[in-house]
Write a structure and sequence with these properties.
heterodimer; A: 147 residues; alpha/beta; D-Maltodextrin-Binding Protein, domain 2; five-stranded mixed β-sheet; 5 helices; 5 strands; B: 800 residues; alpha+beta; Phosphatase 2c, domain 1; Heat Shock Protein 90; five-stranded antiparallel β-sheet; 20 helices; 15 strands; 13% strand; rod-shaped; signal (chain A); PBP superfamily domain-containing protein (chain A)
């Protein structure tokens, strides 16, 4: 029982730190982009949350969803999760630790930065990612703009 | 009850004993098979289930090995990012892919494996590698549980706890221990807490591990080493829990936890191996037990069948033997062995049948004996009766024979008498002769003939045939003959005789018989024949030349048919050497054995070829012999009668033998010439011959001298060379003197006039006195003409 108490404590710490980080990057133009061939034009926040937590794994046409994440220390990543999923980085770590330990899931592929993420989304069929940079050409499909 | 059992009674009535028993045997066999089938099927299903479980165990061993490999590979992979992803365990997949039920689990495993490779391509993050490999291990654990379900390891009540131990708890414990070790190796804060939290999984598994091991030891007492392995493992887990507790406050204790988890992992693996071995051993034993059960059931079934068959065979043979005894006994009884009794040494109902048979046989034999005795008694009575009747019959037969013999004797007497009334002596004169014969077809005949001298020197011949045969005809023949003879002897013409006789016979003919007759009067002096015919065959005349003619006859009616009839006289002349034949239809109608009649033609031919010189008797005998040879022994159809009259050819009668009367002794035979000078020697011989009776000698010489002188002077007219034959014969009563000459017919006794005694000796006619003297001296004096000369017969009685 001590183990689970400890786990709950960690979650509480993550939730408390969320509000502080959110205020710092409030001005970034965050967009969720997808490979142009994906069968959807828009996804909502809930769907985006399910996709990036790998709770939704296939598009409506059955093709595999390939979520592209960013490195853990990226502010855009933190902002994305905060805005779209409402989860703090600690929460995410705990989520993926649990998923990893139980073998239930593997964290999404992680790009080094926005540009690489956009590149991966453009290249990989079924890919979906997010970016905060201005330069988003028509090679990808913007499916969600959190603001 | 009758109706209830009707079908089976009907069936039984149509089957032999052997088939009845066979039917019952088959039914019992089917019942046994039907009864044992579920048991056998259950055992078979149980065996198959146990085999399935064994197959599951074998699959489990492979899966457990793979699990250990994957756990170890994960451990390596999180420490060495260059470690290649694990190759898919082909043996495991191949085994699993054979079962469609495992398709989902296999797909999941393969997907996990693929994910490992994909992730390894873009991530060298140890946590990533841990996660992908853990997912693979999770997929394998799912496959192991699905496989366990597929092989029904979880539903075997005997092994449910052990199965839970093997397929769920121990793999989970192994994975948990492996994850604890690996997580602690990764040294991530957020994962370390999960490693501690995983202690809960181990703690929860403890009761199941204990239950599973206890069940295995219960099933497999020899697997006591399991308990030791479990105890070591549980001790290790407890120490691990203590260390984890300590790690909440002291992070350095995590290193100890890692060490302990490694040791416990090995111990858990050991326990798993031992548990698998124990479970498999149990299943093998269980299968052997079930197979043994199956064999036992089969043996019991076969044994029961053999026992029933043996029992039925015994019953059948016993019944068959009893029935055979009954059948043989009945057959023997029916074939006549009435003392047959049937013995059956069983205690069933057939004994009653045999007993009843024996009772019936005894009773039957007794009744038969009674019947046999009655029959024998009746037989004896019958035999006695037959003896009596036979004796009576013999007596009657003897009487009948005696009567028949008497009748026969009477008939023979009558035949003798009939023969006696017919003339047996026939005239055989110098110039003519007659002979006749009658052969009756039966004892008595209806034919008759007669020949008699008439007073005027002529001779009557008669032949007749009465209709019918036998006694009646014989009587009518006697009557007819008497009538005809009475009438004829007076010398009337034949037509009158026949007419008169016809009237007489018609008056006294109660049997309506009739008689054909031919009556003729022959004059030996000139060969003239005067005759009349009453319905008889015309007489046949044979001339010396051999020509045959039937004499003319009117178609006059037979005598006795109707009275008042008239008949016609005819005349015919027999020349010298001619022969006249009178016959009845017994001659011409005589039948040969082939049915042919003798006939007129044959008679004519015979008569034509006949030799009259042999004499009348010879002709009669020859004709009778000819007819007899024609008939050749066949029974005579009618009386046979014939009469022959021969006129001799006119030769001297010197050598003609004189007829000799019966009982006469010839005293003298003397021939002399017709000369007076030959008379004295004759007188001397007569005196010599009658020396004892000089009186007779004197009388004889007187008569001889007188008659011979008469013959020499008048009969032969002085022809001195003619011969005169003289015979003297003597019987007890009579002296007979016969003088025979060959002069023309001349009767000195009828033609000589009574002498006139008054006249002088010289005045008397020649010879007249002498003949008178002869008549006076002799008792009988007669003269005949026989066709060849005159015969003078003198009789003188010896007693005066």
């Amino acid at each position: 029982m001590k183990t689970w108490n400890d786990f709950g404590l960690l979650s509480l710490v993550s939730v408390l730190s969320f509000g502080v980080f959110h205020a710092a990057v409030a001005e970034d133009p965050l967009r969720v982009i997808a490979h142009p061939a994906v069968p959807v034009e828009r996804v909502d926040a809930a769907q985006a949350t399910q996709i990036f937590l790998k709770q939704l794994r296939t598009w409506s046409d059955g093709t595999t969803i390939e979520p592209i994440d960013l490195k853990e220390d990226s502010p855009v990543r933190d902002e994305f999760y905060r805005q779209v999923t409402g989860r703090e980085p600690a929460q995410l770590r705990a989520y993926w630790a649990r998923q990893t330990f139980t073998g239930m899931g593997v964290p999404p592929r992680r790009a080094a930065d926005d540009a690489e993420a956009a590149q991966l989304v453009k290249k990989m069929p079924g890919a979906i990612g997010y970016t905060a940079t201005e330069q988003v050409d028509g090679s990808v499909k913007i499916v969600l703009e959190p603001r | 009850m009758q109706t209830l059992f009707a079908p089976t009674v009907w069936l039984s009535g149509r089957l032999t004993f052997s088939r009845k028993y066979l039917l019952i045997g088959v039914v019992v066999l089917l019942a046994l098979i039907a009864l044992s089938q579920p048991v056998l099927q259950h055992a078979d299903a149980t065996i198959r289930r146990a085999e399935l479980e064994r197959a599951g165990l074998r699959a489990f061993v492979i899966q457990a090995d793979t699990l250990m490999v994957l756990i170890e590979q994960r451990h390596v992979a999180i420490q060495d990012a260059t470690q290649p992803p694990p190759a898919a365990e082909q043996q495991l997949l191949a085994a699993a892919q054979r079962h469609p039920e495992l398709a989902d689990a296999v797909t999941r495993l393969q997907t996990s494996w693929d994910a490992v490779r994909t992730t390894d391509e873009y991530s060298r993050d140890p946590q990533h590698r841990f996660a992908t490999r853990t997912a693979t291990i999770n997929a394998l654990l799912s496959l192991m549980q699905a496989s366990a379900r597929l092989h029904r390891l979880n539903v075997d009540s005997a092994l449910d706890a052990a199965c839970d131990l093997l397929t769920v708890r121990l793999p989970l414990v192994l994975e948990t221990l492996g994850k604890q070790r690996d997580v602690l190796t990764l040294d991530l804060v957020e994962l370390a807490s999960y490693a501690l939290g995983a202690q809960v999984v181990l703690a929860e598994a403890v009761p199941s591990l204990k239950t599973g091991v206890a069940q295995l030891i219960e099933r497999r007492p020899t697997a006591a080493n399991l308990q030791h392995a479990l105890t070591v493992l549980l001790t290790g887990i407890q120490r691990q829990q203590d260390t984890a507790d300590r790690a909440l406050d002291d992070r350095t204790a995590l290193a100890d936890l890692s060490t302990l988890s490694r040791a416990n992992l090995a111990q858990a693996r050991l326990l798993l191996d031992q548990a698998v071995t124990a479970a498999d051993a149990y299943l093998v034993a269980h299968i052997e037990r079930l197979q043994h059960t199956q064999w036992s059931i089969a043996a019991i079934l076969i044994g029961t069948v053999i026992a029933i068959a043996y029992l039925f065979a015994g019953i059948y043979l016993s019944t068959l033997r009893s029935l055979k005894n009954l059948s043989q006994g009945t057959a023997a009884f029916c074939s006549g062995r009435l003392d047959t009794r049937i013995t059956i040494d069983t205690r069933d109902e057939l004994v009653l049948v045999a007993r009843n048979f024996n009772t019936v046989a005894t009773e039957f034999q007794r009744l038969l004996e009674v019947i046999r005795e009655q029959n024998a008694s009746r037989q004896r009575e019958l035999e006695t009766l037959v003896h009596i009747r036979t004796a009576e019959l013999a007596k009657s037969n003897a009487q009948l024979r005696a009567a028949g013999q008497r009748v026969q004797e009477e008939l023979m007497l009558a035949r003798s008498m009939q023969a006696a009334i017919l003339p047996q002596d026939f005239p055989n004169e110098v110039t003519w002769a007659i002979h006749a014969a009658m052969y009756p077809a039966r004892e008595l005949g209806g034919d008759f003939y007669d020949c008699f001298a008439l007073a005027d020197g002529r001779y009557g011949i008669l032949i007749a045939d009465v209709s019918g045969k036998g006694v009646g005809a014989a009587f009518f023949m006697a009557v007819s003959r008497t009538v005809l003879l009475d009438l004829a002897i007076n010398g009337g013409p034949p037509s009158e005789i026949l007419a008169h006789a016809n009237d007489l016979l018609c008056e006294r003919n109660p049997m309506q018989l009739f008689v054909t007759a031919c009556y003729g009067i022959y004059d030996p002096r000139n060969g003239q024949l005067l005759y009349a015919n009453a319905g008889h065959h015309p007489p046949l005349l044979r001339q010396a030349s051999g020509s045959i003619t039937a004499l003319d006859c009117a178609q006059d009616v037979a005598l006795g048919v109707m009275d008042g009839l008239t008949y016609t006289d005819y005349t015919a002349t027999l020349a010298l050497g001619a022969t006249l034949l009178l016959y009845t239809d017994g001659v011409t109608e005589a039948l040969s054995p082939r049915g042919q009649e003798y006939g007129d033609d044959r008679l004519h031919a015979w008569l034509k070829a006949a030799v009259p010189a042999d004499g009348a008797e010879a002709l009669v005998n020859a004709l009778v012999a000819d007819v007899a040879s024609f008939v050749a022994g066949a029974e005579a159809s009618d009386d046979l009668t014939c009469l022959v009259l021969c006129r001799k050819s006119g030769e001297l009668c010197v050598d003609t033998p004189l007829p000799l009367l019966d009982n006469m002794t010839v005293l003298l035979e003397h021939h002399l010439h017709a000369r007076l000078g030959d008379i004295p020697p004759l007188a001397e011989r007569v005196e010599t011959a009658l020396a004892e009776r000089p009186d007779l000698a004197l009388a004889a010489n007187l008569c001889l001298e007188e008659l011979i002188v008469n013959t020499v002077q008048h009969g032969l007219n002085g022809e001195s060379d003619r011969l005169i034959h003289v015979r003297l014969s003597l019987s007890d009563e009579w002296l007979q003197i016969i003088i025979k000459d060959d002069a023309p017919p001349f009767d000195p006794f009828t033609e000589a006039p009574v002498p006139n005694i008054e006249l002088g000796l010289d005045e008397r006619p020649i010879g007249g006195l002498g003949v008178h003297l002869v008549k006076s001296i002799m008792d009988e004096a007669r003269a005949y003409y026989d066709g060849s000369g005159n015969l003078i017969v003198l009789l003188k009685t010896l007693h005066h």
